[in-house]
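Below is just one:
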Amino acid sequence: MGDIDLEQQEPFPVDRDGRRVRDEPDGGRKTGCCDKFQQSVSKWMLPEDVRSKYLERANCCPPPIFIILISIAELAVFIYYAVWRPQKQWVTLDQGIWTSPLTYKPESRQEAWRFISYMFVHAGVEHIVGNLLLQLLLGIPLEMVHKGFEVGMVYMAGVLAGSLCSSIFDPLSALVGASGGVYALIGGYFMNAVVNFREMIPLLGVFRILAIVIFVGTDFGFAFYRRFASDEAGYNVSFVAHFGGVVAGMTVGYVFFSAYNMKLLKDPRFWLCIVGYIVFVLFAVLFNIFLSPAP
């Protein structure tokens, strides 16, 4: 009986934390609804070379907690201002949200929490429904693949980048809505689809890229109209948060979403994005303290 060369044996599959992944045979096991859903998610979210690793450890429990909880919180705040606070009508909210301690307003930017909390306040039914649908349809599959920490980091990076960009490039405008976070998810997913286009089923790749381009172009068009052409009274609502969210997604989001089954701390792209993001935040803080034309 010959000696076994352990160095030539294939290593056990492990996840990004070094834990061994179960390797169970598929034969004789009936494919359930959860397994079919996981297979569909892997085709939409991952390049072909890592799908098998994802399916080996995929599990519907725990569910994607972060994106669900953040959506419930945003809906709860909208219901509060639409129902319990006095409004002339609730299809498009008016004075209620502009007096909210959550809304970002340039004259109140010294209240630093507003740079984050504005994501909970929405200006009307169309606004809240659009953001919730997008972040649930895209965020749940992303969180199933990349887990809540990664998706949460990208989402919050987009929210903060959106408000800071607005304070620099549109400093006299107010800001409401979770578009910065939603666009960060879109930007990260878009970059991943473009870079791994050949490995993510070309037909689906073309469809998803076109869908993102069409949606983003349409939404930016409406945002420009609301900002520059609309005659609505009150605060001007900034559109720059969309740009900030997209840039955060195409940088920070791309690193998180493309590093599946890899240790982020060993990825030089991760540190490059982190350093760049910190430099941007410091510049924005200094701008708001010393250079902003806002009162």
